[in-house]
Amino acid sequence: MDASVKTILFLGPTGSGKGVQSKLLSEKTGFSIFSTGGRYRELRLGDSDLAVRIREQYDGGLLMPAWFSSFLFEECFINKSLHEGVICEGVGRRIEEVTEFDEVMEWLRRPYIMFCLNITEEESLKRQMSRNTYGTELRPESDSEEKIRVRFKEYHTFTGPAIEYVRNKGRVIDLDGMRSVEEIHADVLKHLDQ
Asked: Is the full-model pTM beyond 0.90?
C-alpha cells in the first residue's frame, strides 16, 4: 500500500459488508475505524431532544443531513495526526458530504481511497433480514423489509452521485460484494498492496 494513504473509505448499500471489511482491515493495519452509522446509533440513545430527532429520521431508514454527517467526520479527523490511519465506514453518502470530505482531506493533506462494495437489492434484503432473524445485530433503521428497501433506494438516489464524484477523481475501487467475506478482504489487501 502507498504509505501516504492513511484514510480508507468503505461505501455500499445496507448489508454490503462495510462494517465487516472495516473491522478486518483495522485488525490487519492497526488503523482506527470511524463509522457514521455507528456514531448515529450512539447518539440516538437517551431522551435528549437530539436523540429524539435522530430517531425520527434515522430509524425510518432515511439518510441524516449532510451537514450533520460532515460535522461527525470532521470531529473525528480534526485532532488526528497524519501518521494515524483511519478507516471510514459509511462516510460520504451524499454529494454535499463527500465534496466536503474531499475538501477537508485535501486541506489536511490526507490522501484517501474509497472501496465500493456492490450488491443487489435482493442480496441486501436477504442479508439484513437474516441479521434481524438471528438477532446478530438488531438495528432500528433496518428492522423491516420496507425500511431496508427505503435505505437501498436512498443509497442509489443520494450515494450513487457521491461515489461518481470520487470516481471522477480516480479514487474509487469497485468490489463485487456478492462474494465471501474472505474473498473480498483478500481483494482489498491486494489493491492496497499495489
From this structure: no
